[in-house]
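I have been asked to look over a protein record a colleague put together. This is what I was given:
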Amino acid sequence: MPLSLLLAGLLALGSAAGLQLFSDAPRLPLVLALAAAVSACAARFRGARGATLALLAVAVVAAAAWRAATVSAEAERPPLVKWFEAQVANEPGGDIPGRAAPVHIRGRLAADASSTPFGAQLQLVTTAVEQNGVWKPVSGSLSASVSGELLDKAEDWRAGRTIAASIALRRPAEYRNDGLPDPRAQAWRGSALVGSIKSGALVEVLTPGMWWDEGAAAIRARVRGALRRHVAPYDLTSAAIGIAILIGDRAALPPEVELRLQEAGTYHVIAISGGNIALLAGAVLGLLWCLSVRFAAAAAITIPILIAHGWVVGGGPSVARATTAACLYLSLRLIDQRTAPVHALALAAALMLAASPLQIASAGFWLTFGATAALVMAVSRRAAQSPGRWWSPIAAVISSSLAVEALLLPVTAYVFERVTVAGPVLNLIAIPAMAVVQAAASVCAAADWLGLTGIASWSGLATHLAARGLVESAGLIALVPWVTWRVPAPPFALLVTFYALAAIWWWTCRPPVDTLVRLRAQRVSLAGAMVAWFWIALAPGSLLSPRPSEALRLTALDVGQGDSLLLTMPEGRTVMVDAGGVPGTLDIGDRVVGPALRARGLRRLDYVAVTHADLDHLGGATTVVREFRPREVWAGVPVTGHAPLDLLRATARATRTPWRWLQRGDRLESGAVELRVHHPPLPDWERQRVRNDDSLVLEVRYGAVSVWLTGDISGAVEPEILDAIDPRRVNVLKVPHHGSLTSSSPEWVRRLRPAAVLVSAGRGNLFGHPAPAVLHRYEAAGAAVFRTDQDGQIDLVTNGTYVEVSTFTGRRWRLR
C-alpha cells in the first residue's frame, strides 16, 4: 500500500476515534481503529520492519485521536461560550437557559455580510467583550443577524474588518430528536453562539482589514456589482448563480432554486469546489502553454494564482480542500515527481486532517475527496481499457459521472437523506453549463472593471443563458419525479461496511489478479458492496407497513419554540399534529420533522392536522405534506389571505391531498382509539388574521387514558371544554400555548388533574415559556412535567391501562 494512502487512512481512523472518545459512546471505535492500523501494517510488512511500522501506525492513530478529542473539546466550549455560561448564570433571569441581555462585543468579520429576507447576517470572530465598563479578551465564533434600520451600511461590513456591536446572545438552535445528527457536530462546524442586532446603527466599523483582506473584499464587491449590472437585468436568479459560482456567495439564491438543484443532484456545481478549481487551473495552464511557457514555470505561476483565488472567494472548507489538492499536485510535478493523482489526493487529505481533524465529521470532506477519487479511478481505468480510441473521452466522462454518483450515494443518503438517480444524466448538462457560467461571468466582471461595456453586456447574456440552462436542466425532476426519493439515514456501520468492501474490491482489481484467493475476494467484496449499496438506496425496512401493536404512541418532537406531535395508533395509523416552524429560511419540516419521521420508518402519513396557522405550528407542514403525502389534511378555522396557510392548501391540491375543516363534535374512530374534536365551533364570522383561540383541541381516548392536544388556546377558551373532561379517566396533556401565563387557568388544572403534562417550548425563548407559575400549578396538582426545551424529544406510550414516558435525555416515568 502506498505510504500516502496509508497515512491518510491512519489519520482518518485516529480522528474518528478521537471524536468518539469525547462522547458517551463505547470505546469500541478506538479499539477497532488501533487494531486496523496494526493489522494493515503487519499484513503489508513482516518481521522487525513490520513490527516497527505497526508501532508507528499505532502512534499516528493515537496522536490523531488525542488531537481530535482536544480540538473537539475546544470547539464545543471556546472561551466565548464559557464566558456566556457564566454571564447567564449570574444575571437576573439566569434560570432561563441559553439567553442573555445584549452586550458590547468586538471582533473581526470572517466573511462579508450576507443579505437575508430580514436584514443581514454577520460571521464574527470575537476578540473582546465589554463587562462592567472593561473590555475583556474573549475569543470564539459568532453568527449575528442584523435587522431594523441603516442596512445600507452592510456594504461596509467586509471580511477582515474589525467591528463593535451591541448583540443579544443565545445558544444556537439545537433539536434533540432521534434520527437527527449529533448536536455536537453543529458546534464542530458552526458558530459557538448566535445573536441578534436590532439595527445597523448599532454596528460600528473600527478598523479596516489587512491590505490583502481589503483587496479580496473589493474584488468580491466588483464581481457582485458587475453581475448585478449586466446579468440581473435578464434574470435575478441567473445573476445569483453567477455570483455563487464565481465567488461562492449563495445568499441571493432563491430557496426554491436550491431545492430544485438538490433534488436533481446538481447542486454541487454552484458550490466552489474541485470542479471550479480544476477549470481555473486548466485555463491558466492552457493559456501559459499557448504562450510557450514550460510546464514547470507554468505550474509555479499557477500555484499562487490558485491560492489568491481561494483567498478572494473566502477560503471556505471546500475551497481550501480543492486548492490544497491542486497546489500539492502541481508542486509534485514542479519537482518532477510524477506521482499518480490518487496519491497526491491522499496526501492532500492527510495534510487537511493533520491541520483540522474535525473535518473527519464534515460531509463536505468526504464528498470532495470521494468525488475526486472516483473521477481519478474511473478515468484512469477507462483510459487503460480503451487507449487512443476516438470515443474514449466520451466514455470516460460518462463512466466517471456514474462512478461519482455510485460512490457518493451512501454519503448523500446519510447526510441529506435523499437519493437521486438523475445526476449522471443531468451532470452532462450541468457541468458544461457551470463551466460556461464561470468563464462568461469572469469575462463580464473583468470587462466591467476595464470599462468595456459592450463585452460585459454580451458576456452577461452568455452568463444568463448558461445559468438558465443549468436551472432548467433540473426540470427533469418535475417530469419524472420518481428519479429522486427520500430515505432514512442508513446506519453508520452500514456505510463503513460498504466503503470497506468497495476498497477491498478496488484493491483486488489492481493487476495482476493472478491468485484464486484474490479473485474470490474480488467477487465476494463486489457482491457485498452491491447488496449494501442497494440496501442504502432503497431502504427496504421503511417500505414495510407498520406492525400492529397494543400501544398508542405520542411523540412530542423538539422543534424549538413550536409544536410538532406524532400520534401512532395501535393498528399503525399516523396523525401528525402541527409541524413546527421558525422565522427565516430554515425549513423545520425538511431539516427536523422529516428526518425524525424517516428515522421511525415512515414514508407516508395518514393525517396531518394543523391546530392553527401560526408559523410555529404551520411552518413545517408544507414540506411534510409534500414529502409524506398524507391521506387527508385537517384544519380548524380558515383565515382569509394568510400566505402560509394558502401555500399549504396549494401544496395539498398539488399532491391531490383532500382537505377537511374540523369543528367541535367531529369524531374519528381507529380500532379501539377514538379521536374527539372539542374546539373550535363553527365560525360565525370570517377571520382576517390568525387567532390562538381558534386552535383545534383534540382528545385521543384509548382505554382508561385520554390524551389532550390543545394547540394554543387561552384561558378564555378553557371553560368551554371543561364539561367534556371525564374525571374517571387518566388524563395526559400537551400544555396549551407552550405554558404561557394566558393559559392553564387554576380551574382548568383542577378539573383536568393531568397525570403527566408535556410542554413544547424552545430553549432560551424570548417569551419566557413555560411560565414558572404555570409549571408550579401543574406540579402542585401532582402532574409529572416533561419539557422539550430540557428533555428533548418526549415519547409517551400507553395501552389504555398504563402510561410510560421516556425522553431523549434519558428520563423515565411510568404510571399504572
